[in-house]
Structures are given as C-alpha cells and as structure tokens.
Design a protein that fits this description.
Blueprint: H1 7-26, H2 34-46, H3 60-71, H4 83-97, H5 102-113, H6 122-129, H7 132-157, E1 179-180, E2 183-184, E3 195-196, E4 199-200
Antiparallel strand pairs: 1-2, 3-4
Helix pairs in contact: 1-3, 2-3, 4-7
C-alpha cells in the first residue's frame, strides 16, 4: 500500500502552488481558478493524480519541483529510499567491508542472475533488471565469501583477525583486541601500580606501534 503525503507536506505544496499562481498572474498569464490550475499542474507532475490528497510520498519531490520552477526556487532532491536503494546500499557496504571488487560482483551476477554486466555497470544493471531480494541474496554471497577468506587466512597464519583485510604483517602484538582502527586503546593498569606524572604508567605509549 502506497504511503500518502502527510498534512504538513500537503500544506507546503498548497502554499507553494498559491505563490506560483500569483506570480504567473502578475505576469498577466491567462489562468483558470487556482484550484483548477493546481490540479492540472499536479497531474502534469505525477502523471497519475491531480489531487494532493491522493498523491504518494514518491510524488512529493516531483510536485514540489514543478511549482518551485515557476518561482525560480532551487529544485530539491528525492531523499526517499526505495527497497532497492536500501538493498544496494547494504550490498555496497558489504563490498567495501570485505574489500570485494566490482568485477567479482559482476561475475556472481552473470552466474546467478544470468544478467550480462561488467564491473563498471553492475550496479546500474541490478537497479534496472533485478529485484531487491536478488540484491539481498548477492549480499549474503559477498559476506560468506569474505568470511571464508578470513577463515582461510586465520588457518594459514594462525592469527585470528576481526577484519578479513587485516594482513598478518600489519597486526600489532596481541592482535586487535585492544585497538580501534589504528589507534591504541590502553588497558587500565591495576590501581596498585604507581602513577606517573602523566597518568598511569601503562598508557604512556609513544611510537610503540608506528603507523
């Protein structure tokens, strides 16, 4: 079921339409009544309804920008996320987290969805021809592949990593348990240890792990 415009959104559009109507009147343009003109413009903007009451959330930007153009206002961007937008956003996030290239994704898409694509146009092809559930399935594939690569690295090196792209040579002594990114997170030392002028002796660390 489509989500309709809120009362606030309808009020904003109605006020904008009234301003645009007055501006056109001031130029001497022959116009029907305000209500008739607004209905006509709303239909031209959406292509399926002339009523603000029946317009959906996805129509708001289209209607707003049509009235705004008459007033010389800057167009607004559509900030409403569709299910496909969300699915692709999560997929991109997983790709980045597991350092998986678009060429690998394109190969999976060709294999699983039989959709011709390359690393350069894979996201556009998914948006045009796939469904959100297809993209969600691709996300699971990317995550599973990343975790498998992490397990393989752990087996080969004997070093457990929190991040699949953390190379053994870059890991600090003791792994990543007390690190956030590349910044050392000091462990509190027991209260019985003497304090130094600069605080607990255990957290004065300089160039121990140069970046």
């Amino acid at each position: 079921m489509k989500k309709l415009l809120s009362n606030k959104q309808k009020a904003v559009l109605a006020q904008l339409a009234a301003r645009a109507y007055k501006k056109l009147q001031a130029y001497g343009c022959p116009l029907p009544s305000l209500e008739e003109w607004r209905h006509d413009e709303t239909w031209k903007a959406t292509g399926h309804t002339e009523s603000l009451t029946k317009a959906a959330q996805k129509d708001y930007t289209l209607i707003y920008n049509r009235f705004a153009a008459y007033l010389g206002y800057e167009a607004i961007r559509d900030n409403t996320y569709t299910e496909m937008d969300k699915a692709l956003h999560i997929l991109r996030d997983s790709m980045q987290r597991f350092e998986t290239g678009p060429d690998y994704l394109a190969g999976v898409v060709r294999d699983q969805l039989h959709l011709p694509c390359t690393g350069k146009n894979v996201y556009d092809r998914l948006r045009k021809y796939a469904k959100p559930e297809h993209v969600r399935h691709l996300n699971y594939t990317v995550i599973n592949r990343g975790r498998a690569a992490a397990r393989k690295m752990a087996d080969e090196t004997g070093v457990e990593t929190y991040e699949p792209h953390a190379l053994p040579g870059t890991l600090p002594p003791g792994g990543l348990a007390d690190h956030v990114g590349a910044v050392r997170v000091p462990r509190a030392t027991p209260a019985s240890e003497p304090k130094t002028a600069r605080g607990w002796s255990g957290i004065v660390i300089e160039d121990e792990f140069p970046l």
